[in-house]
Amino acid sequence: MPRRLLLTGAGSAAVAALAGCQVSQSTTPTPQPTNPQSHPPTSGQQDEAALRRKIASLLVVGFRGDRVGRDDWIVRAIRNGLGGVILFDRDLETDAERNIRSPQQVTTLIRDLKSAAPGRRLIVSIDQEGGRTARLNPSNGFPATRSEAEIGAENSATATREWARGLVASLTRIGVNLNYAPVVDLNVNPESRAIGRLDRSFSANPDVVVSNATEEIHAHRAAGVKTSIKHFPGIGSAAGNTDFEVVDVSDTWNRVELEPFRRLIRAGAADSVLVAHVLNRQLDPNRPASLSPAVVTNLLRGELGWQGPVVSDDMQAAAITRRHGSAEAVRLALQAGVDLLVFANQQVYDPEIVGKTVDAVVDLVRRGQLSQERIDTSVARVDTLRPKG
């Protein structure tokens, strides 16, 4: 902040003025006291403010509450450029209702959140896969939905289309514009606590997964809702859940698990790709997929040719926080090629997470560990997920 300067040497000019005397042209005019806050920001300050807003636009954050006021931290963050929010029906720590109580209530909540965003282009996201993984469900006034496993077992294009349209109708009814779905993991381990046991996969057969996922994506696109195919590079063989533990699929993963991603990308059916926190030493001996340039840049962008936005799984998940601090995980994710960072605020609840993350990324830019061009590239990719202004 600029320091206030002590103004001196103006006494004789002030006396002359009071006496009605002419002050000579050689007399220095009396400086007027100023408020330091009234000075326009310097170009450096403007540049940093712009950079902070760009970084904030790459974050999606969860929050507590089924209504918001203009002074709530999440609303202030949105006014300052936060890219998006993620909604949950239940709070993991308290097991209480979190953001969704009824269709009318959550519609009002989303309207108020969007009204705080410049151009109303806020990403409002959710996990609405169907079945047991559905934040909109009968407990909060929405229709029940069948699981991907049920849909894949029937494997009827007509039935899948009808199911997907019903699922999407709940999203458009309330104003959600990004759904972290469909799951395109292959059900290679039916006992997986992350996929198989929860009926989150269409099938172990790539053909069934791709055909049903394609129908689901088309239904979303017809309604103007973006999707995120997940969990790259495949977690269908995972024994555990990365939200709660470090998960290693090095001995169980097979390259056939890339096929749904490869084929959907090739067909132009992907809006974004969500990358998992699994450790897969076949692809990277040291880092989980979400923090690995070998996986995100070389495999996903290079071999599979994906040039659109890459979305992180929850950046507060135990799978990465047990090995990396928050700032370190953010650095590694961005350097790996991830564009949109999701902080569910479920494993831990941190109302300061936006400011902390923006500060950490600004520091990376200052130290030359991340370029502003890299930030701009991610901003352009993430903008493709936003509703049109």
In brief, what are we looking at here?
The chain has 389 residues and is an alpha/beta fold. The chain has helices spanning 11-18, 43-56, 73-79, 103-115, 148-154, 157-174, 206-222, 259-266, 293-303, 318-321, 326-336, 353-366, 372-383, and strands at 59-62, 84-86, 123-126, 128-130, 133-134, 178-179, 226-227, 229-232, 273-275, 310-314, 340-343.
Describe this structure in words.
With about 400 residues, this protein is of the alpha/beta class. It has a domain at about 140-385: Alpha-Beta Barrel (TIM Barrel). Helix content is about 35%, strand content about 10%. It is built from 13 helices and eleven strands. β8 (about 230), α8 and β9 (about 275) form a beta-alpha-beta unit. α2 (about 45-55) crosses α12 (about 355-365), α7 crosses α8 and α11 crosses α12 (about 355-365). It is globular and about 60 Å long.
Short descriptors:
389 residues, alpha/beta, TIM Barrel, 9-stranded parallel sheet, two-stranded antiparallel sheet
Going by helix content, strand content and strand pairing, the class is: alpha/beta
Q: If classified by CATH, what would the architecture of the domain at 139-383 be? A: Alpha-Beta Barrel
- Helix content, binned percent: 25-40%
Task: Give the radius of gyration.
Answer: 26 Å
Sheet having the most strands: 9 strands, parallel
Q: What is the level 1 CATH name of the domain at 139-383?
A: Alpha Beta
- What is the strand content? 5-15%
SSE sequence, one letter per element: HHEHEHEEEHHEHEEHEHEHHEHH
| Poorly predicted sequence stretches spanning 5 or more consecutive residues | 1-37
Q: Report the total helices.
A: 13
Through-space gap between termini: 35 Å
For CATH, the homologous superfamily of the domain at 139-383 is named as Glycoside hydrolase, family 3, N-terminal domain
Spatial order of strands in the largest sheet:
7-6-3-2-1-11-10-9-8
Q: How many individual β-strands?
A: 11
What is the name of the CATH topology of the domain at 139-383?
Answer: TIM Barrel
The overall average pLDDT, rounded, is: 89
Envelope shape: globular
